[in-house]
Design goal:
By secondary structure, the protein is α+β, with helices and mostly antiparallel strands. It has one domain. The chain is about 30% helix and about 25% strand. It is built from 4 helices and 7 strands. α2 crosses α4.
């Protein structure tokens, strides 16, 4: 009987490691990722606008701020500033294009331009000159963000990440959420 117990114990000891090797270890579930809050989203947009600014003396983004009580993003540039009404934007209407600001006298680097439009009947922005007077020549039904194309190309997935971030910030600011149209 003792010999039988030894044989069973030896068999059990030799088979047990093989069984445990086949059973996956139970890992605790990772903590779910929390959604970024509006201030974090704004900081991403602000960083992109300042780090990827076209340094041409005209389209430079000098400073970017956000007024949380009014949901207005303000972008200061050399010629003045624009107040962007984030709660008036439609996150379904986003367009990227490449813009060449060169003219007959001066060649400039190409810019990556993001355009968003406002909900029908609302102002997307109001722009002011250096003296603080409203610039009526700037269309009020859309906003545009300008980035150095050369710098933006160095950020992998830049356009997709910024689009996603802005859409989320628009919704959190009271703007129209994305709707699947087709």
């Amino acid at each position: 009987m003792r010999q039988m117990a030894r044989i069973c114990a030896a068999a059990l000891i030799s088979v047990l490691p093989a069984c445990t090797a086949q059973t996956p270890a139970h890992q605790p579930r990772p903590e779910p990722k929390t959604e970024a809050a509006a201030p974090e989203l704004f900081e991403y947009v602000r960083s992109a606008l300042l780090l990827l600014t076209p340094e041409d003396g005209v389209n430079d983004n000098v400073e970017v701020t956000f007024n949380w009580s009014t949901n207005v993003m303000t972008i200061a540039q050399p010629g003045g500033h624009c107040d962007l009404f984030m709660n008036a934007l439609n996150s379904n209407d986003v367009a990227w294009d490449v813009f060449d600001p060169s003219d007959t006298h001066e060649t400039r680097e190409k810019l990556l331009r993001l355009t968003l439009v406002s909900v029908s009947g609302t102002r997307a922005r109001t722009c002011y000159d250096k003296s603080g007077r409203v610039d009526e020549s700037v269309p009020a039904n859309r906003i545009r963000f300008l980035f150095s194309q050369q710098k933006a190309d160095q950020w992998p997935g830049f356009q997709a990440k910024l689009t996603k971030t802005l859409k989320r910030l628009i919704v959190l600011s009271g703007g129209t959420g994305e709707v699947k149209l087709f």
